[in-house]
Design goal:
single chain, 337 residues, alpha/beta, six-stranded parallel beta sheet, 11 helices, 24% helix, globular
């Protein structure tokens, strides 16, 4: 059987090691992708450290995948060898469970995530379900497309499903891998965009990304700062920090929304009275389907939104991951093959 290079983690918390692995041909309704780029996402830490149920080892991380179809399995007739495609957090659905029958494919009971349910994109080759594929527009490079499969779609799709209208104030909590895209998308959607981050170090970048206002959450109460601007229709919480999320609630306008996409298991310290009187909603938002990833990429082409990326070769995956783990990563690290 042919082989390819892939990064493997042998057991929970283990090192990322480059290895030669067997190249699995596509089964029915699957394709094999020659990977050219894969984003390094904060959630990769949870995979490496056994943070999800029923994980199997050794594990190949990576769920922000871009590349070219190299092989088609039986039954795949709407894609061709040579097509440029992306696979993100949404790595396939079954079409048969109750959520799928309701059209809620992102909530599929048998849904798949690359690296969790099949080997991920820190590799030269990935075999994935055809229903996970998003076509990459010609205007995006593979390295630009890769982060759109998770960081991009999560922020864009969350914002477009809020009740905020153009001209409304929308705050992005956290200016990191997710937040730096959230600021750009909010500005491109016509929102009066407010960036919130710890300290003043991110202010210059936030304004370059399109923020009209910047709030240093360490300089005072962020809720009061939001109220001084007139209140926010939406706070998109990209920072995985429950107290920081809760600290914005008092600055949300009546009938406004706190949309949580930053992943953390810690409870939100919010009282019902904070929600009842102003009628504020707290909403969790999952990423998006393959079609949502396509929509995200097309909007990025229209608007000029791009992830700020640092490219590293696959052989340096361990270095890119270490930078993420130690909090010194660029906004988005993308491994290139």
């Amino acid at each position: 059987m042919p082989t390819h290079q892939a990064v493997r983690v042998q057991s929970a918390g283990g090192p990322l090691e480059l290895a030669e692995v067997e190249t699995r041909p596509p089964g029915r309704d699957e394709v094999r992708i020659a990977v050219t780029a894969c984003g390094v996402c904060g959630t990769d830490r949870a995979f490496v450290n056994d943070g999800f149920p029923n994980m199997s080892w050794p594990l190949t991380p990576g769920h922000e995948i871009a590349g070219t179809i190299a092989e088609l399995g039986d039954g795949v007739d709407d894609f061709a060898v040579g097509d440029r495609v992306a696979v993100g957090w949404f790595g396939g659905c079954c079409y048969h469970c109750d959520p799928c029958r309701k059209g809620l494919f992102i909530h599929c009971v048998n849904g798949k995530v690359p690296s969790w349910h099949y080997p991920g994109g820190y590799a030269e080759s990935v075999t994935a379900p055809a229903n996970a594929l998003a076509r990459i527009p010609a205007e995006l490079t593979d390295a630009e497309a890769a982060p759109m499969g998770c960081a991009g779609v999560t922020t864009y799709n969350a914002l477009r499903h809020t009740k905020a209208l153009p001209g409304d104030r929308v705050a992005i909590l956290g200016v990191g891998g997710l937040g730096h895209l959230g600021v750009q998308f909010a500005r491109a959607m016509g929102f009066q965009t407010i960036a919130i981050a710890r300290g003043g170090g991110k202010e210059e970048d936030a304004r370059k990304l399109g923020a009209h206002h910047y709030i240093d959450s360490t300089a005072g109460d962020p809720a009061e700062a939001l109220k001084a601007l007139g209140g926010a229709a939406v706070v998109l919480a990209t920072a995985g920090n429950s107290p920081a999320m809760a600290a914005t609630v008092g600055g949300i306008s009546p009938q406004g929304e706190l949309v949580t996409i930053g992943v953390t298991p810690e409870p939100l310290p919010i009282s019902p009275i904070q929600l009842i009187t102003p009628g504020v909603s707290v909403v969790g938002h999952p990423s998006g389907t393959a079609k949502d990833v396509e929509d995200t990429m097309h909007f990025a082409v229209l608007s000029g939104v791009r992830a700020w990326i640092e490219e590293l070769p696959l052989a340096q995956a361990a270095e890119g991951y270490a930078a993420l783990e130690q909090g010194r990563a660029h906004y988005r690290t993308v491994l290139t093959m």
